[in-house]
Specification:
twelve-stranded parallel sheet; 17 strands; 29% helix
Amino acid sequence: MDTTRPIPVLVDDLIPIILDSEDHWWPRDFQRLALVSPAWLVPVRKRLYAHPSLRSYRACQLLARTLAENPGLLCYVRTLDLRPTAEGQRTLDEGEMQSLRRILALKGLHSVTLGGDLAVASQRFLSAIVDTRAVTELHIDGSILSKDRSTSMVPAVPSLEWDDSVAFRFPNLRSLTLSNVLLTIIPPMMDRPPSLTHLTLINVDVELGFLPDLCQGSWETLRVLKVIVGNALEMDDGIRSMLETCENIETLHYEAPDVSGHPSFFDDEPPSCPILRRLCLSGCDVNPRTLQAIAQACPNLEELAIAGRVVRIFPEEWASFLRSDALPSLQRLLVPCGTNQPPFAFWSSGEQQKLSDVCNTRGIMLAGLSSKNSSAVGW
């Protein structure tokens, strides 16, 4: 009697499912899997080259060389994350510049991130992107250089000059993210393409210009505005102008350092925002009058997040506001787990339970009470 059993064979159709079942593959993992059998090669290449993330000029040169020697890989590259930095004050050699030009000339790129040295006068490198009509997401990230700005004799300042020439090069841009950059906005000479729907500004200093001009042409299409600032006073007027100009914004996320006495932009002649559905304020000195101003300006809110250690609203005041039905469409609420009396004092379990009961009665999902580190992250 033959008791031998056939050797198990992996069905090739399962390979993409196996690769998609894990989000944390390392490049070395892909390299090993590509050697298992020819059936693994194409699915692995699709994932290995889909999102190149490069942190050095040597890595840029190696990628450029690989793509030149293997043109069949070009169709897999869809996003680029380039953040190379040079040591000291040295200038780039011709080989390094040529590799950057080759990479930025790739066709079909949907998302591009420029950081490191490429964030300095970043419009220079934006002009090197060839297939700009394919780009729908753009991120300029100056965080790496910003950390070392004070350690250099001649600090390199991450910056971007946004003008008509840049805006018209990306006619299908949907999402623009600027992080830790000095921003210069040149007033438009003509109407720009109406494409932008998401704008994120993280520690951006507007050196010159009017913030709404950054998305001129997209004032009616902009839906999401996210702003995280280190100095709230310098950005408040810009946010107010954005809300007044971009009347179709549905989501506003605003984070600032906790500063007692810094009111929100809703406390003084709040702009009318009837389209706004999701609002997050963190770091503002919020009081019961602020809630009333928000309800008056944004009567159709479905999600409201108020976070930070300078909020001066007691649990019974939250409960009274909810019972008033000032926000009849509210479905989700995030509140801090205490009140700045001052000082900041955490609520008792009884106070938390009373507020939770009011929310349950009104069908509102309540968040923030279970953690003493509740924040606006994720909203």
